[in-house]
Design goal:
Blueprint lengths: L4 E6 L7 E2 L1 H17 L3 E5 L5 E2 L1 H16 L4 E4 L3 H9 L3 H5 L4
Parallel strand pairs: 1-3, 2-4, 3-5
C-alpha cells in the first residue's frame, strides 16, 4: 500500500450502502468537490458498501478516470468480497489494482 495517501474518503453514509444510479450523481459531485478542495492523494474506503450494480461499478471507474485526469493518486481500500467478485467478472482488476490510464 502506498504511504503517500493523505486523505481517506469513507463511504459510511446510508446513502452509499448501495452504489447504484440513485447514489451515482451525489457521490460524483462529492468527489469532485473534495478533489477540488483538498490536496494530496486519496483512498476511498469501500468497507461499508453492501451492494453495487453496474451503474455503481461504472461510477467507481469514472472516479478513477477523474483522478487520473486531475493527476491525483487514488486507491480503493477495504473492497467487500461481493464487489471484488463483480470487479473480477467485469475484467476491471487492472482499473482497481494496477496501472490504469
Amino acid at each position: 500500500m502506498n504511504n503517500s495517501f493523505t486523505n481517506t474518503i469513507s463511504l459510511h453514509s446510508e446513502d452509499y450502502k448501495l452504489l447504484d444510479a440513485s447514489s451515482r450523481l451525489h457521490l460524483k459531485k462529492e468527489f469532485d468537490a473534495l478533489t477540488s478542495a483538498l490536496t494530496g492523494d486519496f483512498r476511498v474506503d469501500l468497507q461499508d458498501i453492501t451492494q453495487v450494480n453496474h451503474s455503481g461499478l461504472a461510477l467507481l471507474v469514472e472516479i478513477k478516470k477523474i483522478s487520473i485526469r486531475k493527476g491525483i493518486g487514488l486507491e480503493f481500500i477495504n473492497i467487500p468480497a461481493t464487489l471484488l467478485s463483480k470487479i473480477e467478472k467485469a475484467g476491471l482488476k487492472e482499473v482497481f489494482f494496477g496501472a490504469f490510464s
